[in-house]
Amino acid sequence: MDFFGVVKQRRSIRAFKSAAVDENKLQRILECINQAPSAGNLQSYEVYLIRDAQKKGAALVKATLDQEFMASAPLALVFCAHGQRAVDRYGERGTQLYSVQDATIACTYAMLAATALGLSSVWVGKFDEAAVAELAGVPEGQRPVAVLPIGYAGETPQATSRRSLASLVHYIS
Questions:
Q1: Is residue 36 part of a domain?
Q2: Domain harbouring 21, CATH code
């Protein structure tokens, strides 16, 4: 599938089959995360891999504020901003903004890579930061900014409507 096909095919999936994600596919996703652009190439983010999200299902559901579908995902990635990696070069803007942007760009790369590999995911931003950090073993000084459950789709949602480009893009001359 070409890049534009991947973008068009990607859907937010909230039901996963129980099949484990193939290790080669997981490795390719992780390699794509590592290729994501970042401010000053500092990669001011960390990724925590919850390998058997189904075993941690109840804790994931609770940490994501009762999002029940989390229990069906065979794995989840927790993307954390690591501001200390950017502070020397960018100061407070690096710690408060660039590290968050870096983590979210990396998460986007993971979503698109998963789609290209025949997997599915959904961006989860609604969660208890402290609970997610504890569950994933995130050290102090890092901030969870996204959780990405990944697996084989257990549903086939229709494409959602999008805003028109005329209402979205503002041309400045």
A1: yes
A2: 3.40.109.10
Number of domains present in the structure of the chain: 1
Stated as kind and residue range, the H or E segment containing 79 is: strand 75-81
Q: What share of the chain is helix, strand, coil (3-state, %, to 5)?
A: 45, 15, 40
Domain boundaries, position 46: 3-156
**Residue 141 resides in a domain:** yes
| 75-120 pLDDT per residue, tens | 999 999 999 999 999 999 999 999 999 999 999 999 999 999 999 9
12 secondary structure, DSSP code: B
